[in-house]
Specification:
GO terms for molecular function: cytochrome-c oxidase activity. InterPro entries: Cyt_c/ubiquinol_Oxase_su3, Cyt_c_oxase_su3_dom, Cyt_c_oxidase-like_su3, Cyt_c_oxidase_su3-like_sf, Cyt_c_oxidase_su3_a-hlx. Belongs to the cytochrome c oxidase subunit 3 family. By secondary structure, this protein is mainly alpha-helical. The chain contains seven helices and no strands. The mean pLDDT is 92.
């Protein structure tokens, strides 16, 4: 009989397996960058190892939470705190990009003409696709909150509808972002402006993609009745991550698109 509410996980091969995949991926990426024969194959193999590790590891976590009852209130509190700390680390990740942007834009050097945007750069109109994407992403934040309240109310069908809306809006956002990149009059190699713009917005787009997959998995789990009023920590963490993505985009839109392109 267990005398504590904590989950002591069973021995698992997936951490070391995922580490092996990360190592193989890194070796393959370096080999590919330097033009070695077979570098791209090694990179692909390592990436497939990581994907397999993700699938099996998260499958085990879902089994532990949903079918074995290991995720007690104490465990859920720990998972919630872990997600918050992860989001704090992600905030600092984006702080680095904002720091680079404001360092270059607030005091532009003579090398870029002492003006911002640099001479020769035609910035994107913030009130076209960027503003539309802002509306789309904020609407998706509202719909994921709708899904959360539906789960808390025990209304699974309404929760599914809200998550479907969220995933569709996220896909539309990504599609517009890709279209914007294809039509942008500058590239990542166009000096400090292109570097800071594409690094900041590109990594945000990558986070949107990860969040979309996260919410899509939650949609499948909700359809399979994995979540209840009192036990839906998987969805909670996904919603927290999605709201973080929303807030970062607001800062990107105001600082890089509106102020930085003025």
């Amino acid at each position: 009989m267990r005398l504590h509410p904590y989950h002591l996980v069973d021995p698992s091969p997936w951490p070391i397996f995922a580490s092996l995949g990360a190592f193989v991926t890194t070796v393959g990426a370096v080999a590919w960058f330097h033009g070695y024969i077979g570098g791209s194959d090694i990179l692909l193999f390592g990436f497939l190892i990581i994907l397999y590790s993700m699938w099996t590891w998260w499958r085990d976590v879902i089994r532990e939470a949903t079918f074995e009852g290991h995720h007690t209130n104490a465990v859920q509190a720990g998972l919630r705190m872990g997600m918050l700390l992860f989001i704090v680390s992600e905030v600092m990740f984006f702080v680095a990009f904002f720091w680079a942007f404001f360092h270059s834009s607030l005091a532009p050097t003579v090398e870029i003409g002492a003006v911002w945007p640099p001479k020769g750069i035609v910035p994107l109109n913030p009130w076209e696709v960027p503003f539309l994407n802002t509306v789309i992403l904020l609407t998706s934040g509202a719909s994921v909150t709708w899904a959360h309240h539906a789960i808390l109310a025990g209304n699974r069908n309404q929760g599914i509808q809200a998550l479907v809306v969220t995933v569709i809006l996220a896909a539309i956002f990504t599609g517009f972002q890709v279209m914007e990149y294809m039509e942008a009059p500058f590239s990542i190699s166009d000096g400090i402006y292109g570097s800071t713009f594409y690094m900041a917005t590109g990594f945000h787009g990558f986070h949107v993609f990860i969040g979309t997959v996260f919410l899509f998995v939650c949609l499948i789990r909700l359809a399979q009745k994995h979540f209840s009023k009192l036990h839906h920590i998987g969805f909670e963490t996904a919603a927290m991550y999605w709201h973080f993505v929303d807030v970062v985009w607001l800062f990107l839109f105001v600082s890089i698109y509106v102020w930085g392109g003025a």
